[in-house]
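User: Please predict the structure of the protein below. I'd like the answer in structure-token form so I can feed it into my own downstream comparison script.

Assistant: Understood. Taking the following sequence of 245 residues as input:
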Amino acid sequence: MGIIKKNYKDILYFEIEGFTFDENMKHLFTTRLGWKQNNIFDDLSQVISVPKEKIYSTRQVHGTDVIIIKEQCNSDVKKVEVDGLITNIKGIALSTYHADCVPIYFYDKVNKVIGMAHAGWKGTLNNIAQVMVNYMVKDFSSRLKDIHVALGPSIGVCCYEIGEEVAILFKERYPYNSHILVEKDNKIYLDLWNVNMVNLLNAGIRKENIYLSDYCTSCNTDTVFSYRKEKGTTNRMLAVISLNQ
């Protein structure tokens, strides 16, 4: 699996290979090419054909709280401090900001439910993937076998060096999954994709229903932004999912 490069005029965006199986659902990951950072939602509205006021985002705080959107509303959810969004409303889009953290896309193909989550090391450690699945099952009667999940571009194990304190947290939380940490040249690297894969499998998601972009943001700063590689850049990509009308 991997990413599919798409263009809208001079705007480059990605789709995740394999996650394009249902025309009722759209998803994408923005890049640094063609998108205007100060008007990114204007650009996004054109690309996905969803009015800007129907594109939902929140204040991300590296937690595991989730907002459920069950009706279109005018309230400013951008002020809500959560890292996950779920809805079954057609014609709106859910989005999260990224510059190394893992975007996790969720889709129940039977009940037509979508979700979007932001998973940095804290959200991954505390298993936001499981939280999202639990809400889909509880609030929308999703069956585990019907939920498909995609892991979008983020910093890869090739580049994500961590300190001993963070490594200890993951060793304690995942004592039987030593493959999530790689030690080389006296340094420790964390595999965020693998940890989230473990979390999803433990949550009951079928392995064949998980799609991995396998695209490292730190290795590809010609097309995407990387907070780590670019030493604290304030630029961000958007991960987006929507249900067609």
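That's the full token string. The helical segments are 40-48, 121-125, 128-140, 164-173, 192-202.
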